Amino acid sequence: MDEVRIRKLLGAFQEGELPLEDLVAALKQLPFKDLGYANLDLHREMRRGCAEVVYCEGKRPGQVGEIFGHLLEHHDNVLGTRARPEDHAEVLKRAPDAVWHAEARIIRVERRPLEAPPTEILVAAAGTSDLPVAEEAAVTAEFMGNRVGRLYDVGVAGIHRLLAHSERIASASVIIAVAGMEGALPSVIAGLARCPVVAVPTSVGYGASFGGVAALLAMLNSCASGVGVVNIDNGFGAATLASLINRR
Question: Which of 15, 108, 134, 150 has the fewest CB atoms within 10 Å distance of its CB?
């Protein structure tokens, strides 16, 4: 189907019926590869600057490996999130250079590292229990070609731990603030920082945290300005947004 459509587009261009800019725009929407259980968007890197990211959760390890294999035929760099060791084992059969980030639950193949801007994305996590989400954000942001700093276990229960890093907070280009429980960390950081703050609520906490809903609502109701909020445990989404801000 894609080949037929491409031929038609090229024919229209050659006949003078389609301007060059319209041809380029149309080609950017193609192609995709139909695997039966997945349609791989092979031109996403042209549109978005990064290849389609594989969300591994819910997929069988064999499917994850096959998807990685096809994506690597078209891209130098491929990322998989919410991955398991058995997913990594399948990817290794097709890409021996695939790296497993256990805490972040990420599989990373990076054959052409992107040049990083001089500015830094700072990832701050309230507690050690928030590290899986924080590391998902940090590793993703590095994969997307950013310098990444980490401030871990700097929650508001011991706020002096955060204030000891006030210079780094002031110099960051974007800050990703990750917190569960009552979710206060992004508000505090946004009161100190000059840059946008991307808040990530986590599902960490006791019963009344409602699996991260309490932190999510607290972040949405932040009294500090310049805070944007992503979904619960969505370190990947936070990193993508922060990267778009940092690399503009």
Answer: 15
Residue 2, phi then psi, degrees to nearest 5:
-65, -40
**Could you tell me which residues come within 8 angstroms of residue 7 by beta carbon, excluding any fewer than 6 positions away?**
none
Peptide bond into 31 cis (omega under 30): yes
Residue-wise pLDDT for 143-177, tens only, equals 999 999 999 999 998 999 999 999 999 999 999 99
Residue 208 confidence class, pLDDT cut points 50, 70, 90: very high
Secondary structure in 3-state letters for the chain? CHHHHHHHHHHHHHCCCCCHHHHHHHHCCCCEEECCCCEEECCHHHHHCCCCCEECCCCCHHHHHHHHHHHHCCCCEEEEECCCHHHHHHHHHHCCCCEEECCCCEEEEECCCCCCCCCEEEEEECCHHHHHHHHHHHHHHHHCCCEEEEEECCCHHHCHHHHCCHHHHHHCCEEEEEECCCCCHHHHHHCCCCCCEEEEECCCCCHHHHHHHHHHHHHHCCCCCCEEECCCCCHHHHHHHHHHHHCC
Integer Cα distance of 160 and 144 in angstroms:
32
